[in-house]
């Protein structure tokens, strides 16, 4: 009889722990972003500049610098944007939690592959080694996510970062 009780207690503990971990990964750490901004790096100044946007919706989590996701719409044409802002290649949207309905990484990736969406640099080093990427479709839908840059990839895989990268931030920053 004691074996059945112990087995039941272990089983219930495992179910509770699993449900808790699932909740924390999918829902727990994310917060709505209240500061609405969409910026692209200008070809002229090499600094992020605001663009015209509407219907902004974003989430972020302090637990990781690459959990930021945002959706918006813009009336600015791709032709104007490509003449004014820095384009980037070889980026793939990161998955968002299923409950963040406006951001479908597979659909965004398909639009980028098809050429109906272009990707722009939103900002360099929003966190150490992390750049902000903005994708905008032909019909004016926009998506934002964070991507590791070369310094970030080197830093996180343990490779020596070298002189081309900014100094690593002190612990606690």
Model description:
The model has no long low-confidence stretch (mean pLDDT 87). The longest helix has 27 residues, at 2-28. The protein has 4 helices and 8 strands. A 6-stranded antiparallel β-sheet has the order 1-4-5-8-7-6. 30% of the residues lie in helices and 28% in strands. The relative contact order is 0.14. By secondary structure, the protein is α+β, with helices and mostly antiparallel strands.
Spell out the key features of this protein.
173 residues, globular, 30% helix, alpha+beta, 8 strands
Show the helix and strand layout.
Blueprint: H1 2-28, E1 30-32, E2 39-41, E3 48-50, E4 54-61, E5 69-73, H2 78-84, H3 105-114, E6 117-127, E7 130-137, E8 141-148, H4 150-157
Antiparallel strand pairs: 1-4, 2-3, 4-5, 5-8, 6-7, 7-8
Largest sheet: 6 strands, antiparallel
Radius of gyration: 20 Å
Low-pLDDT windows of residues:
none
> What is the straight-line distance between the termini?
54 Å
